[in-house]
Design a protein that fits this description.
- The structure holds two protein chains of two kinds.
- By secondary structure, chain A is an alpha+beta fold.
- In chain A, the strands form eight sheets. Chain A has a seven-stranded mixed beta sheet with strand order 11-12-9-19-16-17-18, with helices on both faces. In chain A, strands 14-22-21-20-15 form a five-stranded mixed beta sheet. A four-stranded mixed beta sheet of chain A has the order 23-24-25-28.
- Chain A is globular, with a radius of gyration of 27 Å.
- By secondary structure, chain B is α+β, with helices and mostly antiparallel strands.
- Chain B has five helices and five strands.
- In chain B, a hairpin with a 2-residue loop joins β3 (47-50) and β4.
- Classes of the chains: A alpha+beta, B alpha+beta.
- Chains A and B meet through α7, α9 and α18 of A and α1, α2, α3 and α5 of B.
Chain lengths: 756, 154
């Protein structure tokens, strides 16, 4: 294996590591974190005092703020000013998931702050102080829930203590609401602003004694709060990575080999250098890892357009000795041959599949789904200023914490010499878990010797992604005489870069539903070779597995002539956690709850308009239980209309109802858009789609009505950026079967002749 | 080159004739509310008004619009800072997710309301068909347009 090949293969370990890190951070794993919450008092320029609440490791945070001359402490989570303003910092990246509104709401609830007094700021990137500063795996809410509640409750306790001392009354006689402390007996009251200076002079409360609210007492949590950046968004103020401007910066574009792994053999650099506006053009050798810097040619110019124009005249000859030769049509042909046999690796067996299937009514189905890009609407970009021994970066990233480590390592700088400003990101969907564009910008700035804004074109974005990997499931299943599911076999055909592990997003858990709920079960796996980099795409694994599994379950219930809701409820059985002592595992009772709710709200079983049909699907992912019902009609020309999707979810208590509903509505559109018409053709290592003209993302005309319902409970709240997506495609496909008798086994739907 | 943008005559120097209006706005005039999404008039993130009609600024050379009236998202609110009814409705109905496409959506919607103060769903489908929302906020966009149309009559 060449060094370049080795680098590409090992890069997938990096992607896998990101996923592992995200998933390891369940609240259970972080149970000790609340003990690391602490408070620190600090001065404020202008004479007032502020309460500053810190999360993370106390020693580090104190060291980081030890400079007594610093009047303003940027590491604070919360600042209360004497004039009543309350500033809350949101530590994690905002990528459209709404965390910049949700995180501060959690603090404000326990603080009993009036939301109209709250201003939200994006926190600086400093994982030593803030802990996790990334957005992935729908993990932000569950991992930060306890931390943020305690930060708010500690602030409230100090304000109450200050008021009680002022009035010489017991703290227990004081209440709080809307940024005011009130003495119950006398009716005396003081605002948080009036109390801030006095509160700051008091000792920090023992965190163990903090009383957190019961869910029934929540006022802000569960309400509908409009996003904190909405005014800036609708008036066009600079917010995003692409909007950043640094004095004297130049504008860069970067051309890489269209087949990953290719190196620059030669290029017409002299000709490009002479073009209008071009300041510099050079070869970047790169590290050879797609997650860092791949080889290419950088053009640095006086404007974005000058750089793009010059690039159109750039001619690069690539050495493709080690470049990808991947072919999707080749993989489809290989998988078709493998479909009839079991996989070489057995991942899970329960009971005896062969015996179970022997006396069962049998169904077989071979399912296929394609590679897709993330295509966030803001193409990748980063502004970087490499000043020799220091590096400053402005970037839309999902992993600000990981980026700091990565960029420092790639550039050979100590982490404390690197500053990253996290900007709002114009969509993430998993793409910005990788920070390749950030590394590229840093390297280009270093070589150019000036601050630069690196701008990827849409074509760059489509062709240099970490794709949602395509794959195949060859199923055989059986139902007994009573129509009960008794046997299930899945030969999962996926891809591997190193021949050992599946690529990121291309793995399947041995216990993946319905493994633990079928008496006779066998899951085997075959891995096809792949060089193109893959990565997490909104609800990784689940976004594809749900389509195959939930469609095949409907094949079985249809063969048994069973009502699909009854069939699924029977599989769930008695309410229980499938993995004991893990409240982030699938709970069959919660699953049954959302299935029944979705069915009820959608009018499952009702008489429908002629030509209409309902389809039902369930999926558990990212600790969220979701069931969805799609109402579909299909005309004689296979033209589909998706009239409505009813979503029922259980993610514990909802933090921001408006945000949570928005995520579900968006997940349905994303799920339908992708299932309907999105796929990549890959030949000779090249992605054939380059822009939206050949990658038809759903438009408003075809967007369905989406109705969202939640079952709210006292479990720790979990994230909602992802788990509403996986059931969308199978719910639609199951409805299509009911409407037409046509079983969709290949996505996108246009492959099977459907249109919208 | 002199351009009339949001009611102001602005001079732009050192711009190649072929430079799309989008990049003149963003790089030369620091009006970054207008967004780059595709560069080929497919996504609508760069929508601005040219004499009141929506155009994709990524595909209009700046030199072609000299002397004409251009309005960008920065000029959608009134001169006194009062939000356009659509901007207010976008906030009221919490339309954005990532927010990147929304400037373009608002400019398309504003042109629609000027043309049709009471748009039907079909009018909205037609007028908004050039604007992609990767996050899928279409249901709220539709609702907010209807709400803004309603508020215009109150």
């Amino acid at each position: 294996m060449s060094a370049a090949e080795h680098s590409i293969f090992s890069s997938d370990d990096y992607v896998r590591e990101i996923m592992r890190a995200a998933e390891a951070q369940t609240p259970r794993a972080l149970a000790g974190v609340s003990r690391r919450t602490f408070l620190k008092l600090t001065g404020l320029a202008g004479g007032g005092l502020v309460l500053a609440f810190y999360m993370g490791d106390q020693t580090t945070a104190l060291a980081a703020t030890a400079d007594a001359d610093q009047p303003f402490i940027p590491n604070a989570f919360l600042r209360i000013y004497p004039d009543g303003r309350i500033v809350i910092l949101s530590k994690s990246p905002e990528i459209g998931q709404g965390i910049k509104t949700a995180f501060p709401m959690i603090i404000a609830e326990e603080l009993d702050a009036d939301w109209s007094h709250v201003a939200v700021e994006q926190a600086p990137v400093n994982p030593a102080v803030y802990g996790r500063q990334s957005a992935g795996g729908s993990r932000s809410i569950p991992t930060a829930w306890d931390q943020l509640r305690r930060a708010g409750a500690a602030g409230r306790a100090m304000l109450v203590a200050a008021a009680a001392k002022e009035w010489n009354v017991a703290e227990s006689e004081c209440t709080t609401a809307n940024s005011v402390v009130t003495h119950t007996g006398s009716g005396k009251h003081l605002t948080y602003g009036e109390l801030a200076t006095k509160a700051a002079a008091l000792p920090v409360p023992d965190e163990k004694l903090l009383k957190l609210k019961d869910r029934k007492d929540f006022k802000l949590l569960g309400s509908r709060v409009s996003g904190v950046d909405n005014l800036s968004i609708v008036t066009g103020r600079p917010l995003f990575g692409i909007d950043q401007v640094v004095p004297n910066m130049q504008y860069a574009v970067f051309e890489k080999c269209p087949a990953v792994g290719g190196k620059v053999k030669s290029a017409n650099l002299e000709e490009i250098k002479a073009l209008p506006g071009v300041k510099n053009v050079f070869v970047v050798e790169g590290t050879g890892k797609p997650t860092e810097v791949m080889p290419g040619v950088a053009i640095v110019a006086t404007s974005t357009w000058a750089a793009i124009s010059a690039r159109r005249k750039l001619r690069v000859e690539w050495d493709e000795t080690s470049a990808s030769k991947d072919s999707w049509s080749g993989a489809v042909a290989a998988a078709a041959k493998l479909a009839k046999q079991s996989g070489a690796e057995t991942l899970k067996t329960v009971g005896d599949f062969d015996q179970g299937i022997a006396n069962a009514k049998t169904v077989e189905g071979f399912y296929t789904y394609p590679f897709v890009p993330h295509a966030p609407l803001e193409p990748q970009n980063t502004t970087a200023w490499h000043r020799g021994s220091e590096l400053e970066i402005w970037s839309p990233t999902q992993t600000a914490d990981g980026a700091l480590k990565l960029v420092a390592a790639v550039m050979g700088l100590a982490q404390e010499k690197v500053t990253i400003h996290q900007t709002r990101a114009g969509g993430g969907f998993g793409r910005r878990l990788m920070n390749d564009y950030m590394c590229e910008a840093a390297q280009i700035s270093k070589q150019a010797g000036v601050p630069i804004k690196l701008q990827w074109t849409r074509e760059d974005d489509m062709q240099h992604d970490f794709y949602r990997v395509g794959g195949f499931h060859s199923f055989k299943g059986g139902v007994d005489k009573a129509g009960k599911l008794i046997a299930w076999q899945d030969h999962f055909i996926t891809f591997s870069a190193d021949g050992q592990k599946p690529v990121s997003g291309g793995d399947i858990a041995a216990d993946e539903f319905p493994a633990l709920l079928v008496p006779n079960f066998r899951l085997t796996q075959t891995k096809l070779p792949l060089q193109i980099p893959c990565g997490p795409w909104r609800a990784p694994r689940s976004n594809a597995i749900a389509f195959a599994v939930q469609s095949f379950l409907h094949e079985l219930s249809s063969a048994a002539k069973r009502d699909h809701l009854d069939f699924l409820l029977e599989i769930m059985g008695e309410p229980r956690w499938l993995t004991p002592n893990n409240e982030f595992a699938l709970n069959t009772g919660r699953a049954a709850g959302v299935l029944k709710l979705a069915a009820e709200k959608a009018g499952w079983g009702r008489t429908l308009p002629k030509g209409h049909a309902l389809g039902l699907a369930f999926h558990f992912s990212h600790a969220g239980h979701f069931a969805e019902v799609a109402e579909v009609s299909v005309d004689a020309n296979k033209k589909i209309t998706l009239h409505k999707v009813t979503v029922a979810g259980d993610i514990g208590p909802v933090v921001n109802m408006s945000g949570a509903e928005n995520q579900c509505q968006g997940a349905v559109v994303d799920g339908f858009s992708t299932a309907m018409g999105l796929e990549l053709a890959i030949e000779n290592g090249r992605i054939e789609q380059t822009n939206f003209d050949r990658y038809p993302i759903l438009r408003i005309k075809h967007a369905p009505q989406v109705e969202v319902h939640f079952i709210q409970s006292d479990y720790v709240p979990t994230g909602v950026g992802e788990p509403a997506l996986p059931p969308v495609a199978p719910a639609i496909c199951n409805a299509i079967f009911t409407a037409t008798g046509h079983r969709v086994r290949t996505l996108p739907l246009k492959r099977e002749g459907f249109t919208i | 080159m002199r351009l009339n943008i949001n009611g102001q005559d602005l001079t732009v120097n050192d711009v190649d004739e072929a430079t799309p209006l989008l990049w003149v706005l963003r790089d030369h005039l620091n009006l970054v509310g207008t967004k780059y999404g595709c560069g080929v008039a497919q996504c609508g993130a760069c929508t601005v008004h040219l004499n009141g009609s929506p155009v994709r600024s990524c595909s209009v050379p700046a030199s072609a619009v000299v002397g004409q009236k251009i309005t960008t998202i920065e000029g959608l609110a009134g001169a006194n800072g009062k939000l356009h009814p659509l901007q207010a409705a976008w906030i009221e109905h919490d339309v954005p997710q990532c927010g990147y496409c929304q400037a373009g959506q608002l400019m398309s919607a504003a042109a629609l309301l000027k043309e049709k103060p009471n748009p039907t769903d079909a009018d909205i489908d037609a007028a908004m068909s050039g604007n992609l929302c990767r996050c899928g906020t279409y249901q709220r966009i539709r609702k907010a347009i209807h709400a803004a149309a309603q508020s215009n009559h109150e």
